[in-house]
Amino acid sequence: MKGPGIFVTQFIGPHAPFNSLKGLAQWSRSLGYRALQLPTHFPEIFDLTLAASSQEYCEKVRGQLKEHDLEISELSTHLQGQCLAVHPAYDAQFDRFVPLVVRGNSAARTDWAQSQLLLAAKASARLGLKAHATFSGALAWPYLYPWPPRDEALTDLAFMTLAKRWRPVLDAFDAAGTDLCFELHPGEDLHDGTSFERFADLMDHHSRCAILYDPSHMLLQQMDYLAFIDLYHDRISAFHVKDAEFRPTGRQGVYGGFSDWRKRAGRFRSPGDGQIDFRAIFSRLAQYGYDGWAVLEWECCLKDAAQGAREGASFIRQNMIEISTQSFDNFAASSLSIGECQTCLGLKATGE
After folding, report:
1. 3-state SS class at 241
2. Per 3-state DSSP, what percentage of the chain is helix, strand, and coil (rounded to 5)?
3. Is 179 in contact with 130 (CB distance < 8 Å)?
4. How far apart are the first and last CA of the chain?
């Protein structure tokens, strides 16, 4: 496992050091981070179109980060991936994230999102990245809770459409040599293991169809986030270190009752402040040989972002595990001959 990395989306702003790649790099390295997960919808930070077409630009970006002993963990197209599949109920909200020329035109928005994702595949190839972070988008999400009873044809069509839109993107990432990692997230059609499996089946278990593992979203759904690693470790190619807590009351539970984040039963917290057992997570990922990045994603309803970032690097570093190259009891180990093995098992006298 590599780390610590930091997802800089939540920190980008109009003032230095958060308004330029150089400033973000200096700030991140001063806190002890080794890599940046870069969003691709801030051209002033990272120009996706230019990166897809210019190796010179990609080398310039890598050089800027190398000056601060940093590299790129992954690029992110969370917003573009979301816009690849938008239910009409969310048109107004997600139109805010797309160019003016495609607003109010859902088909044009979908085409724009797909073109962005294809650019991200090319940019990832030029940068030599092994993983990419994104959202799946959602057509069926408003029908999650089956009341009134939903027709299965509705969800079948939603997932078939989702697969059709993602197929050329996954093929492009395959050509780039990069895993496309879906962050399983409420609000997306791919939000848990069951929905991911349904999608993967339709994609013929595409070799680049991967998972960004973020245990916070699993805790808030009351999933077993450790058993998830056991089930899907061969698909996990990216990892967000984000904490959460779930404290149901007599008034609310998983759905939150439309409360704001501070008042919800389920809340995001800075790493170490919530209920997630990160020691067990890091151990489980190490056990299965996860060799990607551990990336802080700061989203806390209480702690200030600056404090969360300061504490995040050391938190990740303290939990990372260096895999042992020998057994703890090797000092007492000895080799036995076949005859000695037979004697130990009581087989020599029987001639077996």
Report:
1. strand
2. 50, 15, 40
3. yes
4. 46
Q: In which element (H, E) is residue 172 found?
A: helix 152-176
CATH 3.30.70.3550 assigned to 2-344:
no
Sign of the torsion angle spanned by Cα atoms 144, 233, 309, 268: positive
Q: How does pLDDT run across 277-330, given as a tens digit for each residue?
A: 999 999 999 999 999 999 999 999 999 999 999 999 999 999 999 887 777 777
**Exposure pattern of 260-290 as b/e (b: 16+ CB <10 Å)?**
eeeebbbbbbbbbbbebebeebbebbbeeeb
- Map out the domains of the chain as residue ranges: 2-344
Instruction: Return all residues near 269 (Cβ < 8 A) that are at least 6 apart.
Output: 243, 244, 245, 300, 301, 302, 303
Kindly report, residue by residue over 178-237, the tens digit of the pLDDT: 999 999 999 999 999 999 999 999 999 999 999 999 999 999 999 999 999 999 999 999
* Nearby residues of 119 by Cβ (< 8 Å), 6 or more positions away: 40, 48, 49, 51, 52
Q: Is residue 46 a contact partner of residue 21, using CB atoms and an 8 Å limit?
A: yes
Residue 138 carries which side chain, given as an amino acid letter? A
| Cα 50 to Cα 241: distance, rounded to the nearest angstrom | 30
- Rounded to two decimals, the pTM is 0.94
Give the percent of the chain with pLDDT over 90: 92
Q: Which of 164, 223, 153, 212 is nearest to 188 (CA)?
A: 212
User: 3-class DSSP state for residue 18?
Assistant: coil
Measured from the Cβ of residue 16, the count of other Cβ atoms closer than 10 Å reads 12
In sequence order, the 6+-apart residues with CB closer than 8 A to the CB of 140 are 87, 154, 155, 158, 159, 189
Minimal CA–CA distance to 78: which of 188, 163, 166, 175? 188
